[in-house]
Amino acid sequence: MQNAVKASSKMGLIMGLVAVFVALAGIVEDFNQLQIIGGVIALGQAMILLINFAAGYVAVRGKARGGYLKAGLLGAGAGFFTVGVLALLVLLIDHVNIRPVFVNATETLVALLTFGRSFGVGILLLLAVGTILGAFGGMLSRLPPRIRAPLVAGFTGVLLFGVLQEIFTVLLSSLGLPKSFINFLFLRKGLSPVGALLVFVLFGGFVAARPVVRPWMNRRLETMHSGQRTTVRFVATMAGVVVLLFLPHLLKLYWTDVIDNVGLFILMGLGLNIVVGLAGLLDLGYVAFYAIGAYAVGTLTSPRSFSGAEWSFWPAWPVAFVIAALAGVLLGIPVLRMRGDYLAIVTLGFGEIIRVLALSDLLKPYFGGAQGILEISKPQIAGLTLLTSQHLYYLILAGCLVTVFISLRLKDSRLGRAWIAIREDEDVAQAMGINLVKYKLLAFAIGALFAGVSGAIFASKLSSIYPHSFNVIVSINVLCLIIVGGLASIPGVIVGALALVGLPEVLRFAAEYRYMVFGAAMVVMMLARPEGLWPAARRRRELRAEAETAGGGE
What are the boundaries of each domain within the chain? Predict the structure, then answer.
């Protein structure tokens, strides 16, 4: 028991320091602009409360043995130490002028942390709320999964609907739902209290019903013959396609543009997923192929380029694919014997070389230097020029659907199994007769081809390209989204792109914290869910087997 108390106190102090960092970095104050439940709680305050809740949950999970009372007490201890550190921060800001060092240590921050109450009452309320949340977190870790999962899903649903209020209100309005119903769910800012309760019940009920509904559906599918199962899958797929086809008309112009950007990253993510997720080749210069596809289309279609070819988009597009794939092979040849960190550094250098060459004065007559390439041709279909984001959406959707289909076919093919064998152990794969040179070059070529597809659409979307659009951060973002989504998982790529590319657009008022949030997300994912948000079945089994082996060894 003594060790458990020490661990709980230690976790509380650690999470308290995290909360202080979040507060002094300005995140609480900036994120508080977004209401989760109107007039009740905003996103900044929710982050502080979640830190207290997480302190109790992590302090108890996997460490303490005993009933709910013991777990609650240990969680309460962790929560108390967390808010204790925050209370010390409030006292420090109130008595000492630390703004010359910490510019975000303002009276507004104190008011947020004390819930707008008077100083003494606010401190006591902060300690009470943090301790109670820590106790709830500790007890939650002791609940059976069938109860814990619906509760977590309900709170997650409320958080998502509050954060994504702007998108949901646009969608509901486009679907023709009565304005009274929308006002019932949402206030001017955030969910209404009744709407929050309804969302909580719907999300929690859905997760609670899954253990009953899913086996029933599986039994129904098993009783069908193969033709009926194929028909069901086809109908479900077509229903999804129909929703995607009507999505631009539901989301309007701005959010369609956001979805277009997400689609471009999905295309790149699917390509890098082959290189990193399947073949295990860590490529940090992936943006080079994105740039090559964009510059190939720009050079061939712009009247202001050195070629003067002025091709239309459609003949130039496949040429861009071929050039990007050849560039992937050229990169792969000198790095065939490299692994791990060495491969990452070399590919990182390759990406920077391409950007610097495009920026250089030497190649300025060919690629425009810092001024880039302008007046790039837009795609045309049956005389219709794809000018707007809503038009280009369908081109990006077609590209995503084709690449998803190709990725699915490759994943379970002989080629895909060879890549997975190389990822697991190159030496054993070679001993089994797998030609490493051939399969590595194929991985680089196909991955580069997908990036070329995305780059070509990107160039036509903007009608102009500049070298600064192809820096190393693009490669890091694509790598982050496949890790967060789930390595070697095709649905994971889509989920990761939505989370890391689409969600920041909702939080655009806090754009300066984007990369800090990326880093935090990576750390949390590696600790809490290393397999990703939507992991591949093989990857999930591997990590669970490793965890069980490690647990058995201890």
Answer: 1-143, 148-223, 249-475
